[in-house]
Amino acid sequence: MDANRHPVFCTIVPPHLLDRIVLSENVRRADVAQRTLEHDSLQRARRRITTARGVVPTLAAAAPDRPERTIYDAGHRTRLPGTEVRREGSEPGQDATVNRAYAGLGATFELFLKAFGRHSIDDAGLPLDASVHYGEEYNNAFWDGRQMVFGDGDGDLFLDFTVSVDVIGHELAHGVTQYTANLEYYKQAGALNESMSDVFGSLIKQYTLDQTADQADWLIGAGLLGPDVSGVALRSMKAPGTAYDDDELGKDPQPATMEDYVQTSRDNGGVHINSGIPNHAFYLLATALGGKAWERAGRIWYDTLTGGELAVDAKFTDFASLTVAATRARFGDGGEEHEAVLKAWSQVGVETDRTR
User: Fold this and answer.
1) Annotated catalytic, 174?
2) Per-residue pLDDT for the chain (356 aa), expressed as one digit of tens each?
3) Is 110 tagged catalytic?
4) Catalytic residue chosen out of the listed positions 39, 133, 174, 272
5) pTM of the predicted structure, to 2 decimals
6) Selected catalytic residue, list 39, 133, 170, 171
């Protein structure tokens, strides 16, 4: 990436959800949410919504087939990266958060390597760095274009942000998008950006657990919500709009089809909301094909993301049409995969150009 160009700032907990908590009658909850929003807003102000296309650097030697991980402890401060506490090959320590972050980085590296032949985030062996224990009761995790950062949560509404491997994978997948299609973080392109991270985050969890598509829970952030929250996760790919319905968090606003597409100026045009539509399309495709979701459905999505034809401002119809073309290129025309991808997009109300 050009050092003078800044990547998108992406968080796992969307601002619309934190906005809701700010209105809480519980002063502590409202204050924590406000501090998290203020921090996230400052980070976003340092970056543009869109970035120039990422270019994969040319290596003199082959990229390594193993990750290069370094975990730092931010010590509840916001200065990054913090103090190094674990590096590649070292033994697990007493801090479970450090160990989970280390394992999650490794699981993400392995999925992309074994399933798609990709060597780290940039396909050139990019070292994977992460900082844990970031800030005081910081209710988020993010990829800042260079590294992963995890808050501990407030222990009330949100728990430690390393508890869900799909959250770790989700944020690192933003880096993959940054180095490939570089989808801008606005409206439908932004929703596709978010959806890509949910798709690969879910695949990383499924790969780690050796699950088939029908065995997976298709939840993003399961285990992240506090014990008193009425919900199971941040998002559901299987049933968008059903992940939570809570007095403090409100009701999950994600639509499953274009019929319920949300027009909004908040959240960069609803990038965390309308991502439910392509998320659901992927779920429908993966479960229709069966087996390990990364082998066919995931391959189609990866080919589309990295194929070089996806515009930075792509709309759902653009992406859907390119998945049809990617399916045809890899699996042939008229087969099970081709019919399944057409049906999945039709079920969520997204039109496809079948001539591509």
Assistant:
1) no
2) 443 334 567 889 999 999 999 999 999 999 999 999 998 887 766 554 434 344 444 444 678 899 999 999 999 999 999 999 999 999 999 999 999 999 999 999 999 999 999 999 999 999 999 999 999 999 999 998 889 999 999 999 999 999 999 999 999 999 999 999 999 999 999 999 999 999 999 999 999 999 999 999 999 999 999 999 999 999 999 999 999 999 999 999 999 999 999 999 988 999 999 999 999 999 999 999 999 999 999 999 999 999 999 999 999 999 999 999 999 999 998 889 999 999 999 999 999 986 55
3) no
4) 272
5) 0.93
6) 171
Q: How many residues belong to the chain?
A: 356
